[in-house]
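Dear support,

I submitted the protein below through the web form. The confirmation email said the job was done, but the results page showed an empty box. After a refresh the structure appeared. I'm attaching both so you can tell me whether what I see now is the final result or a partial one.
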Amino acid sequence: MTRRGHVVATVVLLVALAGCAISTPPRGAARLDRADRLAREGAWEQAVTAYGEYLRHHPRGEGAPRAAANRDALRALLSTRAEAARLREELAQLRAELARRDSDLVRVRQESDRLKADLEKLKQIDLKLERRR
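What the results page shows now:
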């Protein structure tokens, strides 16, 4: 092969290698893409797991900062949702207790009104008895 042939072969080889380098996705891109897709679809628990897998295999990868931020944001979201569900349940229990106590209060007021009426009747009877004497 001539010197010109070596140069051409070297240039072709360099272009081919550069093309491979450009077209080759970063390592772990499929894992990161899967995690992003799961997050977009609302499968947040699975997305947290997928981001964790990516970070476990590629802790210094190009997408590691974004994966860690997304994982942490989704964890916070899931935690907040769980807390909100717990608070909704607690609120429902408090409302039921309040309704029960309100019902008790109505019953006690009715009993108080009845006792006041009975007391008034007794006073009237007592007055009649004193007038007769």
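Response: this is the final, complete result; the empty box was a page-load delay. Residues 28-132 form one domain.
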